[in-house]
Amino acid sequence: RVQDKDKDKDKDKDKDKDKSKETSNLAFQSFWKVYPKKVGKEAAKKAFAVAQKKAATREIVAAVHAQRESKQWKEDGGRFIPNPSTWLNQGRWEDEPPEALAVSPDKF
After folding, report:
1. Is residue 54 part of a domain?
2. What angle do CA 8, 12, 17 make, to 5 degrees?
3. Exposure pattern of 43-69 as b/e (b: 16+ CB <10 Å)?
């Protein structure tokens, strides 16, 4: 009977791990969907797992949305967009919000 209880505990742990992996995968997919540079997906997954320990997925994704509108990311066809793993490893979601491309008043 003790063995049966241990087996049940192991099954519960496996279910929890599966749910955790699924949740983590969904969170990564929400990041990957909005990140404009699609390179190094496996490296980005690993970096995202580490980043999730420091920030909520919604915070990371919101930062991507904000930075996508920055001059740096739009310049030269996105030439200066960092690779996703680099962006995550450097904690770039914590960067000051970029100024969106805006028409300055003196242009009128």
Report:
1. yes
2. 145
3. ebbebbeebbeeeebeebbebbebbbe
Whether 25 contacts 33, CB under 8 Å: no
At position 25, the amino acid (one-letter code) is N
- What is the Cα–Cα distance from 61 to 66, expressed in whole angstroms? 9
pTM of the model: 0.73
CA distance linking residue 46 with residue 31, whole number of Å: 13
Counting the structural domains of the chain, the total is 1
Q: What share of the chain is helix, strand, coil (3-state, %, to 5)?
A: 70, 0, 30
Range of the domain at 36: 2-101
Residue type, position 69, single letter: E
Residue recorded with tokens 């404009």: 36
Compare 8 and 93 and report the one with higher pLDDT.
Answer: 93
57-72 residue pLDDT tens: 999 999 999 999 998 8
Which residue is associated with the tokens 């003196």?
106
